[in-house]
Amino acid sequence: MKHFITTADFDQQTLQQMLDLANQFKQGKSSDILKNKSVALLFFNPSLRTRTTFEIGTWQLGGHAIVLEPGKSAWPLEFELGNKMDATAEEHVIEAAKVLSRFCDLICIRAFPKFENWEYDRQDKIIQSFAQYATVPVINMETITHPCQELAHMQMIQEKLGTPKKKKYLLTWTYHPKPLNTAVANSSLLISTKFGMDVTLLCPTEEYLLDERYLNIAKENVAQYGGSFQVTHDIKQAYQDADVVYAKSWGALPYFGHWEPEKQIRDRYQHFIVDEEKMGLTNNAIFSHCLPLRRNIKATDGVMDADYCAAIDEAENRLHAQKGMMQYLLENQ
Amino acid sequence: MKHFITTADFDQQTLQQMLDLANQFKQGKSSDILKNKSVALLFFNPSLRTRTTFEIGTWQLGGHAIVLEPGKSAWPLEFELGNKMDATAEEHVIEAAKVLSRFCDLICIRAFPKFENWEYDRQDKIIQSFAQYATVPVINMETITHPCQELAHMQMIQEKLGTPKKKKYLLTWTYHPKPLNTAVANSSLLISTKFGMDVTLLCPTEEYLLDERYLNIAKENVAQYGGSFQVTHDIKQAYQDADVVYAKSWGALPYFGHWEPEKQIRDRYQHFIVDEEKMGLTNNAIFSHCLPLRRNIKATDGVMDADYCAAIDEAENRLHAQKGMMQYLLENQ
Amino acid sequence: MKHFITTADFDQQTLQQMLDLANQFKQGKSSDILKNKSVALLFFNPSLRTRTTFEIGTWQLGGHAIVLEPGKSAWPLEFELGNKMDATAEEHVIEAAKVLSRFCDLICIRAFPKFENWEYDRQDKIIQSFAQYATVPVINMETITHPCQELAHMQMIQEKLGTPKKKKYLLTWTYHPKPLNTAVANSSLLISTKFGMDVTLLCPTEEYLLDERYLNIAKENVAQYGGSFQVTHDIKQAYQDADVVYAKSWGALPYFGHWEPEKQIRDRYQHFIVDEEKMGLTNNAIFSHCLPLRRNIKATDGVMDADYCAAIDEAENRLHAQKGMMQYLLENQ
C-alpha cells in the first residue's frame, strides 16, 4: 500500500510527477479518478483550507468526501496497543481504520501533536496507526509534517521562479503568542532541499532548531540533489540575497510540554517578524506562508499586502496539488 | 462585483425577477448554473433551514457546498484592520476571503450581532469585510438583516394574496426570554414597504423601535413604491383589518449590551404573544414567522396549528427563493 | 406513511426482502432511487459508522445527505406538547419535522436515551415525534433500538452461517465503565428471534434483564417463527455450543438514573468479558459486536483479532443493508 504520509518517501522525480498533474489540473484538466469512490477526512484539529480543498478536490474528481471529527461528532479513539480501554476512548484505531477502509477508498488524517511530550509526538502515532491498519491509502493532512502544503508551496515556487535548483531559500522562524507545531517548518526543509535549493534556516537560538530527523533528511537531500543547507541566527545574513522567504512560528523542542519557561524565551524574539525592511535585503524575494497567519505578529500588513506576497497563490495550489497527488496515488498503487 | 447583502441594493423589479425565478424553480424548473462550481457556507451561528436549503439548493443547481464554522471546525477570524493579532484570532478576514475566493464561486455568511454594542454591530463588519476582500459574490445568510428570508416571505405573500400592493401588513414585536437579533424585523420592513404594502410596526414602547437606518429606508420605499408606514403601540389598532401578521421578537436597541435592565422591561410585554383572539381582529389574515419559534411564547399553539399559519410554506420557499437569487446573481455579474 | 423505526413493524419475509437488496448492492447492483432526492441526517449523539454509511449510501443511490446536529450546529428542539417554551429549546419538533419534510425525502434520526428516567426514555419521544409530524418516511439511526444494525448483523450471519433458523445465538452482556444504551441489546433479541434462532440472553443478574417490551416481542417471535429464547446467568452454560456470540454492555434498568449504586454492582462483573477461553466452549462460533468496542474491557485483543471475529464484516454491511432498506422503503410507500 502506497501512502502519502511524508514526501521523504518519494524522490524528486515522483513529486514532480504530482506537480505536473497539479499544473494540468490548474490549467483545466478534468479527471474522474474518484468516480464512485469516497474519501474519509478525519480532523482531530481545525481547518479552513485543508477541509475546503479536500472536499472540493474530491468532488471535482468525481468522488464524495465525508468529514469526521473524532472526539466531537465521532467517537474518541485509542491508539495504544494491548491496554485495557478504561479511559475516555470508545473505539480503537484498529477497528476505525479497518471499518473506514470498507467504506472509503482514501483515508486522510489531520492530527497535530499534543504538545506535551515530543518523544511521544514525534512518533506520529495517529497517522502511523491508521496506515498500519487501513487497507486503503492514507494521506497526511498535517501531523508533524505537512506534505500537501509542500506540494502547493513547490508548485508556487516553480510558477514564480522557474527551476528552483540553486535558488536561495530562507525559512525564517517568527514569533507567535502560542507554541506552534513544527510541521510546516519541517516540511519547508524537506521540500526545498529535495529540489536542490540553497536553504537557510533562520531561528533565534539553537533551542529553536528543528528535530534532528528532519535536519538529517535535509542534509541527505543536499547530498543527493545538490543545493546546500545552513543554519543561522543572524537575521541580516539570512535575508541577504534570498529568492524565497518562507515564514513559520514554532515552539522550542527542548522545552516541549514546559511551555511557561519557553514563552519567556520566545517573547524576546518578537523582532523576527517579517517586515518590509528585512524583505528589502533580499533579491526581490517572494514571500509566503502556509496560512493562517497573525498579521503584525508573524508578518506586517505591508508584507502581506505586497505584490511579492504569494501566500494566496500557494493556498490556491492546495486544491490543484492535492488533486495531482490523489491522481498519482490512485494510478500507482 | 454584485453581492446579495441587503435587498436595499435592489429595486422592486429586480427582486421580482428573483421571485419569478423562485416560482419557476418551485414549479420544477431545473438549472445547472452551479455546475462545476462550489459555494462556501460560513456559519458563525447555528442554523437548520438556512444550512439545509443552501446545501440542497447548491446541489440542485449542480454545485457543491462546503460548510465552515469559524472558531469551531475552522480557525477564529480577525476583522479589524491594522492591529497586532495577539488575541485569539488566528487568521485575518483578508486572507480568508481571498483564499475562499480561489476555491469557491460564492461565499455565504451567517454572522449575528455580538449583542454588546449596537454601534459596532450595526456596521455589519463581518459580511462587509468579506464583501470587501472577496473576489466572488457574497451572500447574506442573516447578519443584521436577513434578505433570503425576505424573498421567501414575499414569495409566500404573493402566493397567498396575489399582488401585495396596498395590502395591510402588520409586523408585531413579541416576547422572548432572550434579547434577539433585529435582523428579520428590519428585513420585514424592507421587503413589505418595497412592495408597496400598508405597513404597521407594532412594538411595546418607543424603546423597541428598530434602527433608524431601516425606518428611513421604509419611508423612502413608501415614497417610491406607494403604500404607507406607521408605528403603533396599540395592539387592537394594529391587528384591525390586517391581511398579513408577521411576528418577531427583538431586544431594545437603547439597552443594547445592558440586557439586565432591558429584560425587566421586556418581561412586562409577554401579552404581545400572537393568539387566536388577536388574529380574530384581522381581515382573515395569514400569519407567519421566520422560524425557529418558541410556541406559547411568541405565538400560541392555536395560531401555529391554524390553517392561516403560513410559516411552513414560507420556510419551504427558502429553498426556491435562494435558488432564484443565486441564478439571478450569477447571470447578472 | 411507512417508517423504519423498529423491525417489530416488519415480518421476517419483508426484512428478508431488504436483506436480499442489501446482498445485491454488495454484489455491485446500482440504483438511482434517490436521484434528485435529499436525506436529512439528524444526530443528537456522536457517530462514525452511521454517519459515514448514510452519507455514502445516499450518495451512491443518487441523492444528497444533510447532516444536522440539533443543539450544536442546529437549534435545540422541544418535544413536549402544549407547554410554554421558556427553557432552552428554540424550536418545536412540529415545525422542525414539517419544515424538513419540505426539503428532504427521508428524515433519519439518532437520539439516545437521556439516561435519567427509563419510563420517559422508553417512549422514544424524539423519533416518535418526528414520525408523527413529518410527511416523509422517518428512519431510526439508533434510539432505544438500532434496526439498521439488526439488518447488517443478520446479513453477516446469513453470509457466515447460511440459514439462521435453529442456530444457537448468544447475546452476552459485558462490562463497560459507563452505563450504556440497551438499544443494540434489544435489537439483538428482536432480529435473532425474528429469524427463528435458538437465543440465549446471558446477563449477570435479573437486574440486567432488558425491557419487558422486547422480552415479550422475543417470545412472540419464538411462537411465530420457531426457535427458542432463554435467559441465563451461567456463563459456561451460555457459551456451550453457541454458533454466534454477540456482545453488548448496558446499564441495569431498575437503577436507571441512579447510576452510582448501579456502578457498584456492574463493577463486580468485569469477568463477563468475551475472551478466548469462553469462545473455546462454543461450536466454533463467530463473534461480533456493533462497534465501537473498548478492547480488553468488552472483548480481549485475542478475540477481536481472531479469524472468527466478524465485527468488521458486520460494520461493512451497514452500508449495504441501509441501501437495501431505503430502496425497499421508497419502493413500498
UniProtKB/TrEMBL annotation, chains A, B, C:
MF terms in GO? N-acetylornithine carbamoyltransferase activity
**Main localization, broad class:** cytoplasm
Q: Which residues carry this modification: N6-carboxylysine?
A: K298
Q: In which pathway does it act?
A: Amino-acid biosynthesis; L-arginine biosynthesis
EC identifiers of the protein: 2.1.3.9
What is the role of this chain? Catalyzes the transfer of the carbamoyl group from carbamoyl phosphate to the delta-amino group of N(2)-acetyl-L-ornithine to produce N(2)-acetyl-L-citrulline. This is a step in an alternative arginine biosynthesis pathway.
Q: Which domain of life is it from?
A: Bacteria
Spell out the subunit comment: Homotrimer.
Name the gene for this chain.
argF'
Q: Which organism is it from?
A: Aliikangiella maris
EC class of this enzyme? transferase
Q: Which family is it part of?
A: Belongs to the aspartate/ornithine carbamoyltransferase superfamily. AOTCase family.
Q: Which residues bind N(2)-acetyl-L-ornithine per the record?
A: E142, K248, L291
Spell out the Pfam families in the cross-references.
OTCace, OTCace_N
* Annotated ranges, domain Aspartate/ornithine carbamoyltransferase Asp/Orn-binding: 182-328
Question: Catalyses which reaction?
Answer: N(2)-acetyl-L-ornithine + carbamoyl phosphate = N(2)-acetyl-L-citrulline + phosphate + H(+)
Query: Any keyword Amino-acid biosynthesis?
Result: yes
Task: Enumerate the residues marked as the site Key residue in conferring substrate specificity for N-acetyl-L-ornithine versus N-succinyl-L-ornithine.
Answer: E90
| UniProt protein name | N-acetylornithine carbamoyltransferase
SUPFAM superfamilies registered for this protein in UniProt: Aspartate/ornithine carbamoyltransferase (SSF53671)
Does this entry carry the keyword Calcium? no
Keywords, comma-separated and alphabetical: Amino-acid biosynthesis, Arginine biosynthesis, Cytoplasm, Transferase
